[in-house]
Amino acid sequence: MGEGFIPEPEERKTKEQLGFDYFNELLSRSFFQPLSSTGSHFVMHDLINDLAQFVAGGICYKLDEKVETNDEYKIPEKARHASFLRHEYEVFRKFNGFYRVKGLRTFLPMPPKKYSCLPPFYLSNRILLELLPKLHRLRVLSLSGYSITELPSSICTLIHLRYLNLSGTSIVSLPDSLSELYNLETLSIRNCRFISKLPPTLGDLVNLRHLDNSNTDQLKELPVEIGKLGSLQSLPKIVLSKVGGLGLRELRNLEHLRGTVAISELQNVSDVDEESEGGKCEA
Questions:
Q1: E strands along the chain, which residues?
Q2: CA 73, CA 75: separation in Å to the nearest integer?
C-alpha cells in the first residue's frame, strides 16, 4: 500500500481489504508459502524468488549481505527499491552510492541473520541529515531498530512518504514539521519506549490510516488533534486527558477504528455529557 500499488476500491472495501485479497490470491497460487503454523509469516520459494529477482532486474535491489560494513554499496542508478541487512554500525561511506539513485522509493533495513548481530544498531547522523533528505521520491522509509534519539525535521521534506517506520528506536519526540508529510498513511512508533509526546500537528495528516503507538511506556497523553484523523483505522493505545488533551468527545470522529484498542486514564472523563459522547464511539 505504501508503494501505491493498491488503487482506491470501487466496492465497499478499504485499501487494506483489497490488499489482503491480492495477497490471498498470490498465496493460493503458491507465490508465497507459510513460514510457520501460525500463518503470520510467509516466504517465497527459492525458485519463485529467483524468478522475481530476474524479472525485476535492477529495479529491486538487495544489497550484498557479504559486503564489509565500511564498504560502499554499488547500487544501480535505475533502482527503485533497496533493502539491506542491518549492521551494528551503519557508516556513511557505505551508502555513498545512493546519491546516484534519483528515483529510489524504498529504503528498507532488514533484520540481520539470527544471532549474527544483536541490537542496539547505530546509524550515522550523516545518513539522517545529509543522505535521506536527498532521496526526494521515497515512499517507504524504515529506521526501525536504530538507536536514534530524534527525527530530523529535514526528513519531513520527503513529501511522497506513505510509510514511516520508527519502531524500536530511542526517539523522545517527533518534530512539528511532521505535518508536511501529507501523503503519510502509516506511522509506526511501536516499542519506542522513550517517546513522551506527539506533536499537535499530527492532526494535519489527514491521510493517516495507521498509527501504531503500542508499547510506548512514556507516552502519557495524546494531542486532542488526533480527533481530526477521520481516516484512522488503527490506534492501539488511547490515553485520555483531563485538560487540553484527547477526550472521549474527540474519539467519536474516529469512526473507522478497528482491531484492538486499549483506553487508559478513564478517570479523566470529567462529566456525564462526555461519557455519553464516548458511548457513541465504536472501536
A1: 33-34, 42-43, 60-62, 81-85, 89-90, 106-110, 122-123, 140-142, 163-165, 186-188, 210-212, 237-239, 262-264
A2: 6
Closest CA to 196 of 221, 179, 178, 159: 221
Instruction: Tell me which amino acid residue 154 is.
Output: S
**How do residues 236-273 score in pLDDT, each as one tens digit?**
999 888 776 788 888 888 888 988 889 888 887 765 44
Of 144, 177, 179, 136, nearest in space to 160 by CA: 136
Q: Are 248 and 240 in contact (CB under 8 A)?
A: yes
Which triple of cell numbers denotes residue 141? 522509509
Of 206, 209, 165, 224, the C-alpha closest to 189 is 165
Yes or no: say if 241 and 269 are a contact pair by the CB < 8 Å rule: no
Grid cell listed for 59: 529495479
pLDDT in tens, 184-236: 999 999 999 999 999 999 999 999 999 999 999 999 889 899 999 999 999 99
Query: Is residue 226 a contact partner of residue 251, using CB atoms and an 8 Å limit?
Result: no
- The contacts of residue 37 (CB under 8 Å, 6+ apart) are none
Strand partners, 186: 163, 210
CA-CA distance, 102 to 75, in Å (whole number)? 12
pTM of the model: 0.86
Cα 168 versus chain centre, distance? 11
Those residues with Cβ within 8 angstroms of residue 189's Cβ, 6 or more apart along the chain or in another chain? 166, 167, 171, 174, 195, 211, 212, 213, 216
**Sequential DSSP letters for 16-44:** HHHHHHHHHHHHHTTSSEESSTTSS-EE-
First to last CA, the chain: 23
∠ CA(131), CA(133), CA(137), 5° rounding?
105
